TrEMBL record:
Keywords: Methyltransferase, S-adenosyl-L-methionine, Transferase. One of its GO terms (molecular function) is methyltransferase activity. The gene is Mettl21e. This is MT21E methyltransferase. PANTHER family: HEPATOCELLULAR CARCINOMA-ASSOCIATED ANTIGEN, METHYLTRANSFERASE-LIKE PROTEIN 21E PSEUDOGENE-RELATED. Signal peptide: none annotated. InterPro entries: Methyltransf_16, SAM-dependent_MTases_sf. It comes from Polioptila caerulea. It comes from the Eukaryota.
């Protein structure tokens, strides 16, 4: 079953027949052909398999996870694929990442959502742990979903990442988080994450070493 579903997920990716002056990859999600411009010199400007796993879940679980008119933020949006798919599924999306990635992110989001979505998504800078209250004040920012794909890897900002999850998450916010396990860092972060949030594994793909989690604040999952 793992191999069959993984084959279906990875089958959503396609490549151009002819090499053009601009490097891009194509994906089929939410009834649309999505073209993503990448930059191979930057981790945040490449589509990683965890993003495909999360997009596949969103598309195939629209009853369990109905995004229509929901307020969604993606942290570490990178190329924007997850944000684009969430937008095409009817959500109002805020796609966030570091300032140096915003140009490519904005390009991809605009190219793939303009006149195709109920709500036009927005792109906003978010450096984990920096000026959170100033840029995303708790009193006025309410997100139904926080989405993240492959945000935990070998980097020194895990404390800031956890702080960002904590700041953005209200009592009724649902976190959808796809993660590839590479090093012990990932396991340690999951343990720390669970001090603040209840965590449920939604899908597991051993052949990709990727797990998809749903999380809410402690005590809110059953409520």
């Amino acid at each position: 079953e793992d191999e069959q579903i993984v084959a279906e997920i990875m089958g959503r990716r396609f490549f151009p027949d002819l090499i053009s002056y601009k490097t891009w990859e194509g994906f089929h999600f939410a009834g649309h052909e999505i073209r993503i411009t990448e930059a191979t010199d930057c981790y945040g400007a490449v589509v990683w398999p965890s993003a495909l796993v999360l997009c596949y879940f969103l598309e195939t679980n629209t009853k369990q996870c109905n995004l229509v008119d929901k307020n969604v933020i993606e942290i570490g949006a990178g190329t924007g694929l997850v944000s684009i798919v969430a937008s095409l599924l009817g959500a109002f999306v805020t796609a966030t990442d570091l300032p140096e990635l915003l140009g490519n992110l904005q390009h991809n989001v605009l190219q793939n959502t303009k006149q195709k979505c109920k709500h036009q998504p927005c792109v906003k800078e978010l450096s984990w742990g920096v000026d959170l209250e100033k840029n995303f004040p708790r009193s006025s920012c309410h997100f139904d979903y926080i989405m993240a794909a492959d945000v935990v890897y070998h980097h020194p900002f895990l404390d800031e990442l956890l702080l960002t999850f904590d700041h953005l998450c209200k009592d009724d916010t649902v976190i959808l988080w796809a993660m590839k396990f590479r090093l012990e860092n990932e396991n340690r972060f999951v343990d720390r994450f669970q001090t603040l949030f209840d965590l449920e594994m939604v899908s597991n793909f051993p052949s990709l070493n990727i797990a998809l989690y749903k999380a809410m604040r402690k005590g809110r999952m059953k409520a």
